[in-house]
Design a protein that fits this description.
Layout: H1 3-33, H2 39-61, H3 73-94, H4 113-145, E1 147-149, E2 155-157
Antiparallel strand pairs: 1-2
Helix pairs in contact: 1-2, 1-4, 2-3, 3-4
Amino acid sequence: MPVTARLLSIPLRIGELAFAATVAGLIGHYLRAFDKANSWPQARFIYTEVVAGIAMILALVWLIPFRASIVHHGVDIFMFILWIVSFALLVNFIGPLHCGSIWAWGNITEKGTCQRWKAAVAFAFLSAIFWLASALVGIWFVHKTRKVAYSDGTTKTTKTTTTRRRRNPFARSRV
């Protein structure tokens, strides 16, 4: 495994975990506040909570350093799409609140309602970007370590280091 891929993967997974936890906390607060509201605003919040929960579980599992934690770029792209949908649902919800531009994230640390919604939107967007970056790192890793098959049946590894020969599963153990 290239060291660069691992060095890039771990901070991305930590960021995904932190952003998902932040969004889950902010949206969880509003789910509790909107307990008696109609079902449509709750539906988008529940969707966002589910996406944040899945993201936290996947980020925690894939923080464990093994090869398979890099090559799940298909799931990373899927999570990116889920976060973009969540971002769009949140933006659609705060549009009628007249909070200004959704891209003005400078005052999200204040305690107003608009600032909290913008913080949820900002962290949902940042989480989506981190999942996309993880997917790109995974694609780069697979591209770096793939085997090239030739028409005569031989293969060549494009990896710069030597690879070990695969042992015959029916051969006697060397232990």
